[in-house]
Amino acid sequence: MPWCPRAITLDLDDTLWPIAPAIDRAEAALEAWLHEHAPRAADRWPLDARRALRDRVQAEHPELAHDFTAQRLLTLEHMLADAGENLALVPSAFECYFAARCEVEHYADTVDALARLSARLPLAAISNGNACLVRIGLMDRFAFQLNAREHGAAKPDASIFHAACARLRLHPHEVLHVGDDPEHDVAGAARAGLRSAWIARDGRAWTHAGARPDLIFADLHALAGWLDARMPTSANHVPHIDTRPRSAA
Predict the structure, then answer these.
(1) 197 - beta bridge partners?
(2) Alpha helix (H) residue ranges in the chain
(3) Sequence-distant (≥ 6) Cβ neighbours of residue 21 within 8 angstroms
(4) Same domain, 133 and 170
(5) 50, 120, 150, 151: least buried by Cβ within 10 Å?
(6) Which residues are catalytic?
């Protein structure tokens, strides 16, 4: 009998939506906010300088490699302090940036495919980014979202995959992880004992030197079709899994 997962974990950025337009939108929103509320910081820190500062903060704080929110807050704090602005503005500046960062534009197949997949199996999100599925409006398709910031380590670290499997109450080999990144999603999932599906929207060939994906799809519609073929049409009841962290169960 063909193997079929009991749950699916999904990457978010560049799997459900392209991340670059969202980041560009967030930077533009922050730029406008700075000009209105912290003009000295706006003049001192144009986009290229902000990005260089963000890279510097990342390099100087390797302990925050998994936490993009903390990196962004430190960057904003440095910008405002350097320009002699009020540091009490940091939370508002971040909220402006983050709200726009969550205004994503889904790939054409995403919404329909998630409806099809979630009607079959429990879905969970595993992301290194800090996107919020509640703000984005997709949380109803997922049992839970596990971000690297919350977990304390980022993909491809095996612990974040294992944490998701533990919340699903499943063994790693029973879970299929789906994502676009060869190292973070495919190789990371394989090393953690999960099956993996690589989403190659641009038709690129697999060139990564590590583990090969178990499955390759052009988009999420193809993944949903694959799952439909392995589950009987009468299987329209998603099994309930208590996905609360064990400490809260």
Answers:
(1) 178, 215
(2) 19-37, 39-44, 47-60, 68-82, 90-101, 110-118, 133-136, 148-151, 158-168, 188-191, 220-230
(3) 104, 105
(4) yes
(5) 150
(6) 11
220 and 139 share one domain? yes
Tokens of 246: 């064990």
Q: Look at residue 208 in the predicted model and tell me its pLDDT.
A: 86
What is the CATH classification number for the domain harbouring 210? 3.40.50.1000
CA distance 86 to 7: 47
Structurally, how many domains does the chain consist of? 2
Paired tokens of 166:
């533990």
Residue 10 belongs to what H/E stretch?
Answer: strand 7-10
CA distance 59 to 227: 41
Structural domain containing residue 93: 19-101
Q: Are residues 87 and 193 in the same domain?
A: no
- In the block, residue with structure tokens 């929103």: 29
Highest mean pLDDT among 3-17, 202-216, 229-243: 3-17
Q: What is the per-residue pLDDT across 161-212, written as a single tens digit (0 to 9) for each?
A: 999 999 999 999 999 999 999 999 999 999 999 999 999 998 888 888 878 9
226 and 238 part of one domain: yes
- Gap between the Cα atoms of 227 and 117, Å rounded: 8
